[in-house]
Amino acid sequence: NTTNLLHLLRMLYLLLSWxxxxxxxxxxxIWALNAGGGSHRGVDGVMYKPDIxxxxxxxxxxxxxxxxxLARVHPQDRILYQTERYYHDSFxxxxxxxxxxxxxxxxxxxxxxxRSPNQKxxxxxxxxxxxxxxxxxxxxxGFGTAHDEYVPFKIHESSLLIGDYKLAFDGNLHVEFVxxxxxxxxxxxxxxxxxxxxxxxxxxxxxxxxxxxxxxDIIQEDPAKPDMHKERRAPEPAQQKKVSRPKKANPxxxxxxxxxxxxxxxxVFLPTVILLCKSM
Length: 280
Known about the structure:
The chain has 5 helices and 18 strands. It has helices spanning about 1-20, 60-65, 80, 135-140, 260-280, and strands spanning about 30-35, 40, 45-50, 60, 85, 90-95, 100-110, 120-125, 130-135, 145-155, 160, 165-170, 170-180, 185, 190-195, 205, 215, 215-220. A hairpin with a 5-residue loop joins strand 2 (about 40) and strand 3. Helix 1 packs antiparallel against helix 5. The longest helix has 21 residues, at about 1-20. The relative contact order is 0.19.
């Protein structure tokens, strides 16, 4: 009858939502925030909570009006890269983690203001440990383009393990965006996944003018050292650096496998509905 059909549709909807949130290999978003913006449900089912109004810094929606067709991301999720929080000094977010396991911090960025490299450059720390030094979003992907950074780490017996670094951990992960000499630090969105890098959904690769594939940055074994600040030089406006890297095989390029659970679920869902309709 109609009641049973509605119940079945509801159960299948919940199953599809669960598959989308977990991903193909079991990724599970346990904390997500839309920096500088309101709550948002991502195309992958992840629920982003709104930013905190009394935090240091400026919540900006500059990208909403000035970069409406932001590249490299599903239209439904453009808002995650169009709103941001920035500050004239260092600032950060606290993320509670209550159990041991493998985790991946996904940081989302886009440059919606500067149109050349070496204009906005900043660092990122986790519990005061530098994990990304000298992040220049424009130099990575250009203007108005989504860019993600991934930092895998592990929590084990009151310790935070990042690459070869072992830090004391009290249940709170502090993610800090550190000001340097080049403008203000910023972030567009943050997601904490429970799982490994193989579990986490990725942005599609992009190609530059030379058709070289540009992959997202992953902090693997050795986080950047603080003394790398000394290697920075003043901007050289006469030449604009191209975003170019050698082509190399990457196991994340083929993302078709992550859709198989969804396709299978739909394949089961449609015949079931047809049979139920015929029996009514």
